[in-house]
């Protein structure tokens, strides 16, 4: 009997994440302009909150804590949401199928928080709001880099869709020495740095928060091993008697 693969093979953790992003966007779109502005700012990550202005911004002191996570659920418009949804489905599905739903959600949230922290470090006191799941999705990209090229080398790229857990992963040291991982990482960083000169804006004023992207990606690349549940796929160290 021929095995029939599903056309759409999206893990539950990814579907749940996508559902939250869509529901938040719909809820915000149904608000009045005044309500919309208040809630976007209350949910957004704003460095100025940590420079003594938390009480003057929507959400107050509570948002100083919650916005590390809530900013990931808000998107500027349908284009912004659609772009992130596409990358979430592409990279998130592979990663979630490998490490499981709960680890995927924890990994993604921590990646987004790391991106926000780097943005804060490089933009202290900035009043501009940061929104979007791009930092978390960048972390997913970084994580997938740890086993993507092993699948390609083995001629088993199909496993990225069918069974990512069957692909051996690289250690962090191996990843940092692999020319393809290094090149892909440099391209990722380079494309994001183009945002400094205005490349990749959403609308008239919505620029890319490249700092959050890079922070998320570095987290994903470095922290993947701590979340990888497919440890049996890591090749054992060579014996001196082999």
Automatic annotation (TrEMBL):
InterPro entries in alphabetical order: Peptidase_S54_rhomboid_dom (IPR022764), Rhomboid-like_sf (IPR035952)
Nucleotide-binding as UniProt keyword: no
Record-level Gene Ontology MF annotations: serine-type endopeptidase activity
Domain Peptidase S54 rhomboid: 64-223
GO cellular component labels: membrane
Keyword Transmembrane helix tagged: yes
Annotated compartments: Membrane
Topological relation to the membrane, as annotated: Multi-pass membrane protein
Source organism superkingdom: Bacteria
Transmembrane segments: 12-31, 78-97, 104-122, 128-149, 181-202
UniProt cross-references to Pfam families, sorted A to Z: Rhomboid
Chief subcellular location: membrane
Alphabetical keyword list: Cell inner membrane, Cell membrane, Membrane, Transmembrane, Transmembrane helix
Annotated PANTHER family: RHOMBOID PROTEASE GLPG (PTHR43066:SF26), RHOMBOID-RELATED PROTEIN (PTHR43066)
Protein name from the UniProt record: Rhomboid family protein
Organism, as annotated: Hyphomicrobium denitrificans 1NES1
């Amino acid at each position: 009997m021929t095995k029939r693969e599903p056309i759409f093979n999206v893990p539950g953790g990814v579907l749940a994440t996508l559902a939250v992003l869509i529901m938040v966007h719909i809820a915000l779109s149904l608000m009045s302009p005044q309500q919309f502005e208040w809630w976007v700012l209350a949910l957004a990550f704003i460095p100025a909150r940590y420079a003594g202005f938390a009480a003057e911004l929507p959400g107050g002191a509570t948002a100083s804590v919650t916005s590390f996570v809530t900013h990931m659920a808000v998107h500027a418009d349908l284009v912004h949401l659609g772009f992130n949804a596409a990358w979430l489905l592409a990279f998130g599905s592979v990663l979630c199928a490998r490490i499981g739903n709960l680890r995927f959600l924890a990994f993604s949230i921590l990646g987004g928080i790391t991106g926000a922290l780097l943005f804060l470090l490089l933009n202290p006191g900035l009043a501009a709001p940061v929104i979007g799941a791009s930092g978390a999705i960048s972390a997913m990209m970084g994580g997938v880099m740890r086993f993507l090229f092993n699948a390609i080398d083995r001629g088993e790229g199909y496993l990225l869709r069918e069974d990512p857990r069957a692909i051996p992963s690289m250690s962090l040291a191996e990843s940092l020495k692999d020319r393809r991982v290094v090149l892909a990482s440099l391209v990722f960083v380079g494309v994001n740095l183009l945002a400094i000169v205005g490349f990749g804006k959403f609308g008239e004023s919505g620029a890319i928060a490249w700092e959050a992207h890079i922070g998320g990606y570095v987290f994903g690349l470095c922290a993947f091993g701590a979340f990888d549940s497919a440890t049996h796929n890591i090749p054992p160290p060579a014996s001196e008697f082999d």
